[in-house]
Design a protein that fits this description.
Blueprint (H helix, E strand, L loop, with lengths): L3 E2 L6 E3 L4 H7 L19 E2 L5 E3 H5 L3 H17 L2 E5 L5 H15 L3 H4 L11 E10 L4 E3 L3 E8 L9 H28 L4 H8 L4 E10 L11 E4 L5 E6 L5 E5 L2 E5 L6 E5 L1 H6 L9 E3 L7 E11 L3 E2 L3 H7 L7 E2 H9 L3 E2 L4 H13 L1
Parallel strand pairs: 1-10, 3-13, 4-5, 6-19
Antiparallel strand pairs: 2-6, 5-14, 6-7, 6-8, 8-9, 9-16, 10-15, 11-14, 11-16, 12-13, 12-15, 17-18
Helix pairs in contact: 3-6, 4-6
Length: about 350
């Protein structure tokens, strides 16, 4: 049975475990230590129909191509909640430099990384791994090391390696613009006034987080998990990886392996987009599995509205639907609520929001 978590940033942090890579590298290691034990059904179907969105058509001058791209984006957000973004304009050299930089960070001595160990879930710079508790109060450790940075509206980044600050700054600026254009296109498809959208979401001061995850080779991939099933709290999340797939997404009650071709970005709609569109865009559960053959590195950029934005269903859509499906909530309070939900297996905050509305209607 699949488990769920409120957000990938909602685990209980503990001291950085320097032995994870050592366990993986040990030729004598045939099993994972008991603290990593998480029995999971990781089998999934192959996904051959994940939608593709051509970003160049969204911003190009051909009205027919733009109309098709807007339609493709809206359909992808409604039917899958995930899509492959191509022709996005991110230089391949920048992507290669980012993977070099994050690998340098993960290879830093423990003494260098120790200053960034997570002391609280809201630290603007934090690294390490996570100890997770389920609803039965049984705890386990994720087979993953991570680095998370709050990069907008204020930029935070470690001083070492030196390359990291430059590439993270450049990449997050580019992806922030990509996210803004995607939001504009979704709202165009839904015939929402762009000025109204700007006033509600306050994208000039949007909250953006950069994260990179390192998943070493795992001797028993069926007995450990990289990240359990969850949804993301923001608007759009962008993911790229080092050529090793590991993301699985839930669609129509089944799990699918989701991969993205070289030079593309895997994008998913997140909770605030589902809320703002009154359920038209879907924030779907996804998880990261591990494998016994190759290490995996992923780079994730989570794009949200401003922390000060109070996000609820857009008024024009509520009028069309005859009612709101979700409560409105200040985004920073939404994130904080997810950070305090540290149990695996419970309902997500998004699901709780829907239940509250249904109770009010009843």
């Amino acid at each position: 049975m699949a488990v769920s978590i409120a957000a990938s940033d909602s685990f209980t942090p503990f001291e950085f475990d320097a032995t994870l890579k050592a366990i993986s590298d040990s030729s004598s290691s045939k099993s994972v230590p008991s603290k990593f034990n998480f029995s999971n059904e990781r089998s999934a179907f192959t996904c051959d129909s994940l939608p593709t969105v051509d970003f160049s058509a969204l911003v190009g001058g051909d009205p027919h191509q733009r109309s098709k791209a807007v339609h493709d984006l809206a359909t992808a957000c409604r039917e899958w909640g995930f899509f492959i973004l191509v022709n996005h304009g991110v230089p391949e050299s920048l992507v290669e430099a980012m993977f070099r930089a994050v690998k340098e960070f993960f290879n830093l001595p423990k003494s260098e990384k120790k200053q960034y160990e997570a002391k609280s879930a809201s630290d603007p710079i934090k690294c390490g791994n996570f100890n997770v508790a389920n609803t039965s109060n049984q705890s386990f450790t994720l087979w993953r090391d991570y680095l998370k940075l709050y990069v907008h509206p204020n930029f935070h980044c470690p001083h070492q390696p030196q390359l990291l600050r430059d590439v993270v700054s450049e990449y997050t600026q580019i992806t922030r613009k990509l996210a803004s254009k995607l939001i504009e296109a979704v709202c165009e498809a839904l015939e929402l006034n762009q000025r109204y959208v700007g006033e509600i979401l306050k994208m000039d001061s949007s909250f953006q987080m950069f994260a990179t995850n390192y998943y070493p080779r795992c001797p028993q991939p069926d007995e450990a998990i990289g990240i359990p099933a969850h949804t993301d709290p923001g608007l759009f999340t962008f993911l790229i990886h080092n050529g090793v797939a590991g993301l699985q997404i839930e669609h129509d009650g089944k799990w699918f392996n989701a991969d993205s071709p070289r030079n593309s970005i895997l994008v998913n709609a997140a909770d605030q987009l589902e809320i703002f569109t009154n359920g038209r865009c879907k924030s779907v559960k996804h998880r990261a599995v591990v494998n016994e053959e190759r290490e995996r590195i992923s780079i994730v950029v989570a794009n949200g509205p401003s922390g000060e934005a109070v996000v609820g269903p857009a008024a024009a859509l509520v009028e069309k639907d005859g009612g709101a499906m979700y409560n409105a909530m200040k985004y920073e309070e939404y994130v904080e609520s997810q950070l305090t939900n540290t149990r695996v297996g419970g309902k997500s905050l998004l699901e709780q929001q829907m239940i509250d509305i249904q109770r009010q209607l009843n």
